[in-house]
Write a structure and sequence with these properties.
The chain is α+β, with helices and mostly antiparallel strands and 184 residues long. Helices cover 33% and strands 26% of the residues. It has helices at 4-13, 18-24, 36-44, 64-71, 115-140; strands at 55-60, 77-88, 96-107, 157-161, 169-180. Strands 1-2-3-5-4 form a five-stranded mixed beta sheet, sandwiched between helices.
Length: 184
Amino acid sequence: MNELIINLLRYFSKFVGKAVLGKMFIQPATSRLTGYDSIKTEILAMGNDDVIPEIQKFILSMNENYVSEKIKNSNEFILFVEYGKMTVDPDSQNEVMQSLAVSVVHNLSKTNNDNLNEIILMNKCLEILDIIIRKMHEEQNELNYCANNELISFPAELQIVDPREFYGCGGWCAMFSNSNTTEK
């Protein structure tokens, strides 16, 4: 399967500023896997048209320990993309169906937040997530987008991210599938 997870990194990086992305690439040169430098260069060379300035941290992972380490003590809006189950059908036009969860969260455990501050943070998380979902829908409907791929299946399910279950961060999560064809 051709770079399905790497393509998620490429796609969702466009919503994140270069300074934030630059902080992600910290692997020492001596332990970088093949392709690391070219993917890093490609991502950092992308345009800024779709950057959402409020996003100050980006995590794409399914590794709970990594996610926990990166989220704890954060006090900014975080874009978190978690990939999950895939179904593969080589006889289908959309060969690979992939489950995704795209969340925008913010730390809610700060002791100086009253209820209104919390509501404003939760509303902003929803606004940012809505921008991302609408951009995915817009791009999917463009004429030059591959007819066999689907960035996002609708309806997308939106749900609350409970701070008790997500390291003190609350916000909103969109759960949906996307589909891809693979190179033969």
